[in-house]
Structure formats: C-alpha cells, structure tokens
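The freezer alarm interrupted the setup, so I double-checked each line after restarting. Inputs confirmed:
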Amino acid sequence: MSGGAGHLPNLGGAQSGGPPAELPRQRRGTTPQMRGRYPDYDVLEQADHWDEATRGVVLDRVERVPSIRFFDEREVATLGAFCDLVMAQDSEPRIPVLAMVDEKLSTGRAEGYRHVDMPPDPEVWREVARMLDSAAAEQGAGGFAGARPEAQLLIVRRFAEGELRWEGCPVDKAWGVAMRDILSAFYSHPWAWSEIGFGGPAYPRGYARLGPGQREHWESPPEFELDPVRDVSERGLE
Amino acid sequence: MKPRPPAKARLARGLKGALHPAGNDSSLLLDPRHPSAPRPEGMRRHPESEAVDMLIVGCGAGGATLAQRLARRGWRVVVLEAGPFWDPDRDWVSDEAGSHSLYWTEPRVIGGEDPVELGKNNSGRGVGGSMVHFAGFAPRFHPSDFEVRSRDGVAADWPISYEELRPHYEQLEHELPVAGEHWPWGDPHGYPHSPHPIGGGALRIVKGAERCGIEMRVGPVAIANGSFGHRPHCIYRGLCLQGCKVGAKASPLVTHVPDALAHGVEVRAECMATRIETDESGRCTGVTYFHHGEEHFQAAEAVAVAGYSIETPRLLLHSSSARFPNGLANGNDMVGRGVMVQGAPQVGGRFPEELRMYKAPPPEIASEQFYETDASRGFARGFSIQTVGPLPIGWAEHVLADGHWGQALREYMRDYNHWYVIGALNELLPRSENRVTLAEETDANGMPVARMDYSQCDNDRANIAFGKERMREIVHAAGAQDVLEIDRYAHLVGGCPMSDSPDSGVVDSDQRAWEVPNLFIADGSVMPTQGSANPALTIMALSARLAERLAAKRVGARRERVAA
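Predicted 3D structure, all chains:
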C-alpha cells in the first residue's frame, strides 16, 4: 500500500526511461543488464568463504538454470515479457526470473496460505497470463508479448493498480502473488546482490565492521550514489 | 530503599553470563564441533503401545520446554513433531529464498477483512518450531498484560498474574540466554548477558528517538554475547530469520532439546498428528498420527498440544467424536476464537551514508515506552518499537508494497545499503469473530486444512496509525532524507484462551482443557491477550510453569495421580 508520507512521489504510475544515465557499467563479474553501483564488486568471488550447503544453493541459481516445465509456450512468451517489464530487464544479461518461478510452481513449493477468494498459486499464474493476453487483445494486439511497449506498460500499470477487468479472482491479490514470486527469484540471484552491493552469505566468516559507512575488507565502496526517491520523482519514472 | 541483595546474588550478578543455568545442560551437551544441533542418535525410544506419561504434539517453544522440564522430573515423554529433526550444517543455508523449508507451507486458507498472510512470516515447522527463524527478540510481558480488563476495560484478564511467570522468565533468560541493557519497562530487570554491539542504523535510531524524547535500549535478544557452554559467539551475519547455523541464537533445538534427549525424551520427527483419541469416560487415550503416509497411534496417560495458534485449534476441531461432536474441548464453541496477530507496520529511512542493514542481527534495539494505555492517545493499550533489518528479498517486498515496480523498483533496490528499518509491534485486541476453523479442502493425509479469518477493530487501526506516526518522527529525527512505510502483521497467539470459568475459554489457569481432564495446551494459543512483546519467551515461561505444577501434582494429569 502507499506510504502516505506527503513528500513521497505519486506512486505506481506507468514507467518509462531507463536507469540513471550515470549508473556505471559493471566491470567485474555479472549484474543484470551489466549495470550497478558497485562496478568492481562481484559477490560470487566470495563463494569460497560460504558454507557448503549455502554455496550449493546459491551457485545453482547461476549454473543450473531450470528448463521450463510448468508453463506452455504461449504463457512463456506472455509472462516472460511481463517479468522483463516489472523487473526492468530490458537487455541481456537477464536473471532468468520466469524459469525460476516455473521451477517453484512445477516442484509444488508453496507459500503456506491461500486467500479464500483465490485459486491456488499455480492457477493464479496461468490466470495472469490469460488476463494479460486478453487485455492486449482489447487493444488490438495478438497477445501481450506482441503488443507495443507503450501498450504493455499501460496494461501492467492497470494491473499494478488493480484496475484490470478480471473475472475469477481479485486482481490486486493476483498482482501480489505474481510479484512475490518474481521478487523472490530476482533478489535471490547473486547477480542482483552484486548490483546492489549486498554482502551475501556470511557463514562461517561473519561480519565484523557494523558501523555507519564501514565495510568488510572484501566489500566495495559504491561508485555512484543517488537518492532514488528524489530521482524517481524528478525524472517522472512513475 | 531496596534491601541490599545477599552476597551470593551479588556474586552471581558480577559473574553475569559466566554462570551456567541450573536445571538445563543443553549448551554443554552439544557437540563442540557441531554446536548448532543435537543429534538424535541414541535417543530413547518408546513402543507405541506404552502409554507414556505425557505425549506432546509439537516441538517448538512450548512443547520442547514442557518436555525438557517434565523429563528432568522423571516423566516418560514422547514429542510428535510434524517437521524434520534439523541438522543445521546440512539443512540450513545463509540465504533468504533457500530457507523455505523452515516454514509451515502446508495449505491453509485465509479470510476476513484484514487477512493475515501465513507461511514464512509467522509459522515454523521442524524441531525447534518457529523460534528457529524468529528474529531473536525475547522481551517479557508487562505486569499490565495480565489485567487489561481490570485496568483498561478491554479484552480479558488472564487467570494468572505476572508474578506467577516471573521466576520462569528469570530462569529462561539464563537458559537461552538473553542479552541486553537493563530493562526499565514493565517489571524492571537486568539480563544475564551484556548488550551486543549495534550497527550504524541502530546508532542513528537511538539518537533520533532521543531527540523525540523516546528511549531505545539495546536488546533484549536471545543470542549469547560471548560463548555459552559449547554454543559459540554470534558472528553478526544478519541471517537470524533464516535459522542460526552458528548456534548462537536460541531456539529449542539448542536450548532445550539436548537436555530433553539426555533425560529420556523421544522426539519423533516427521510425525503429523491428526486426531486426539478419547475413551467413553471422556479422557484422552493417545494421538493418531501419520509418518511418511502411514497411520500410527501412540498411547498416553496425558496429552499436551503445542502446535501453536493455527494447528492446535485445527487438531482439536478435527478430534470430534460422539462425545465431543463439535471437536475436542469445544463444547462452548471457543476453540479457535480470539486468535491474534500483532500489528507490525514498518518505517524505513534513507540516510546519506551506507548503513548496510544486512549486518548484525536484525533485532538490535527496542523501546517499550508506549506499551501501556495512555488515555490521551484515544485508544486502549499500546505498542513497542524494534529494529527489523530486512534482507534484499524482504526489502524488495517493502518497496513493492510502497507502490514501486519496474525501473523505480530497481533503483530503490540499488540504494538498499542506504536504508534502515524500524517496526512497531501493536497490541491488537482479541475478537471472538477472529477464528481458526476447518476448511473444506483437505491435506495429503485427508485432514481438513485450517482456515483463519481475521479483521481489525477500530482500536487496532488507531493503535497502528499512532505507532506509525511515532516511528516516522523517529526516523526523520534520525536524519532520514526520505521514508517509506508499509503495513504488515507479526506473530500469532490465542485461539484456545485460558480463562477463569469454563464458559469463557478452552483451558483453565493450569492450561488444562476445561472439558478433558488429561488434555493440556502448551503453546501461545492459550494467551488471552498478547501485549506488545514478542511471544516466544512467554510461551516458554508458561510451559515451564505448567511443568512445575504438573510435577508437583498441583494439577493432575496421569490417572493414578489425579487427586480425588
């Protein structure tokens, strides 16, 4: 829900424009779209310091991209375009968000609750694909994946704001289900950790320098800093 | 003037955490090479036909503490636990998404006007229960919590007083152990371990709060500060909510299960209880459970349910019979009612310097200055303020909840290291219509899944709004350039309240079911109200008190011991 603090920008608008122009290109390792604030920081270089169980789980996300088993071809096209848009992944390298979601759904990994007025999560995802396609069809496109970028943005904006017409389940809750899975996939990926300067797993090594502005010897300083609240507002990203 | 404490107490205070707690050797029983978990090998086994003295369902804060205490007093105890017996070295990871197996992710249905999301936020599975992934805050309840009806005219008084739990709080604070500054709120008290160092974000919040006339103190956290027996020192890796691979943070897995096993308790993992069986006289005879798809029955002289606020009512409601047509102990239709969550809104601030909130345990500092009713605020009861420290996925959910996606969300997330987050725990009031019932849907064992309906009342909304306002003030006074806030819930208690009369609750002041003489409930579901404190320590204290009273025969359980 909206923050409600008066000085925050108007939230949830349709978005255009890319990342800040000054955002550095990644020089070390990989980040999504090869940009980030820590161009010389690659969290994967620390993998030798992680415990074996953790290393296995994290490296699998990079080295073993699951193949699609749950979604069909059309759903992959629709939802792939949707995932790219909501995570602003407009070029390679991309974190394989949809493949990670597909794996979660195909292996039956559940969240532990379902709203009484909602179908189970896997069905919600299929509904989302159908809804996006039918919203695109209303605008004359064959499907969401084939719609013009501005049309896609508009559809997703209406989805985010709970304004899409949709029989079957509450559209705001469907947005919540889909975005929860997408965010969990994206920010579990070590490429995203390098992008944001997250230290990552720290067992058994731990963290020693906790104070303001302090870094471990293996963490990097940011090369670029910007208050997102102001920038997003000033550039009219929302 | 207070009398000077005796020499022994002064010495103990001087030694602080160096003293080993009496009556619980868990931290010494752990293998120093693998201190994060006990090993079940060599555990005593009981045949299913043997009617054990106490059969406990659930091995979390309530069940494990009860088991350990009773075993120490010679009782034969079996604990059925739905989830696995963890080996943290192998099973747990220093990773948010990879920690999914720690949560109760079996199907459940949520409804009401303000539905409560379950799963990772508030429910655990496996030996150690949800304390395995709790943040670690271990405050006591305040004396006022036990008499909110008398003092504030809301909810219900507890049938017991704070004084009855105090000795158990003190004992458990040594067993976990709890670290923190001297605590000035509620019943003022100190902690056995000194306060942990705090990170840059918490330092800012302490100062910001001070400028607002609000005092924050370090702690109280159930994380050893210094090694404790064979448990090592905290390494400040920040992944408390993902299970402590280090073994520094308390959970029953390391604080009570080792001692329980050493005193003959059998913890039967991956056993899902589906029915409490009763005889014609209305007494429990044991529990039917499923282990890997196969049905079993364990006989018992007495049964204690410790499945927490969703699974405990579910099990009772599903244990209906000709004698108990509405479910066990539910003749008055109270089972499942009054289930509660705390309001847990969070306010994040953006600061000029990097604070890297993923470091240090998320629980760092807290204030209970707003805990009790202040008539000038216009609502009853209050809230506490604590630090939160979300990791990237958790923080991304905040950013989304504030309305951002696409490029904006990515940009907020690239700024992660500049943010710090505090949260409130608002005491929301118990309401009869907030209830756990059985849904039509069934699980893999054919047992109907739980449905939880939840709606707030006006007092709840006013409390949450007021708490958010105070937090915004603190974060701004701390020097934040921008703030972001979201609404959420935390914790679960209630659903099988203890009461002073058979009409108004499910269990009596000894946590014994009003309708079934050898059935007990030993978890947070018995709490009539929830205060603004994290519930873990109080759940343990209730079980410790129950064990003491059972063993001293002040309340009968076993047939031969029931007083005439």
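Quick read of the result. The radius of gyration of chain A is 19 Å.
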